[in-house]
Amino acid sequence: MIIFDVPLLFESGLDKFCDKILVVISDYEIQLNRIVERDKIDRELAEKIIKSQLPNEERIKKADVVIENNSNLEDLFEKVERFCETI
């Protein structure tokens, strides 16, 4: 088993090499705030970054599994571990 951790999986075309696709999504405001804090940029630039990516709705359609990440890292890790136990 090989796991790709690719933030822009669909945009890069790497999804064609995957048998199963897990997508992690978060609400727009949470995503926006995380980018602003992580990259130390203003909201306007963060919005441009988000708009340059495939929308969550499209990513969800292409995914086999969707994990919602509106909480903390611990919660995300638990969800990913539960998914890994199923494969």
From TrEMBL:
<dbReference type="InterPro" id="IPR027417">
    <property type="entry name" value="P-loop_NTPase"/>
</dbReference>
<dbReference type="InterPro" id="IPR001977">
    <property type="entry name" value="Depp_CoAkinase"/>
</dbReference>
<keyword id="KW-0067">ATP-binding</keyword>
<dbReference type="GO" id="GO:0015937">
    <property type="term" value="P:coenzyme A biosynthetic process"/>
</dbReference>
<keyword id="KW-0808">Transferase</keyword>
<dbReference type="GO" id="GO:0005737">
    <property type="term" value="C:cytoplasm"/>
</dbReference>
<dbReference type="GO" id="GO:0005524">
    <property type="term" value="F:ATP binding"/>
</dbReference>
<protein>
    <recommendedName>
        <fullName>Dephospho-CoA kinase</fullName>
        <ecNumber>2.7.1.24</ecNumber>
    </recommendedName>
</protein>
<keyword id="KW-0418">Kinase</keyword>
<dbReference type="Pfam" id="PF01121">
    <property type="entry name" value="CoaE"/>
</dbReference>
<keyword id="KW-0547">Nucleotide-binding</keyword>
<dbReference type="GO" id="GO:0004140">
    <property type="term" value="F:dephospho-CoA kinase activity"/>
</dbReference>
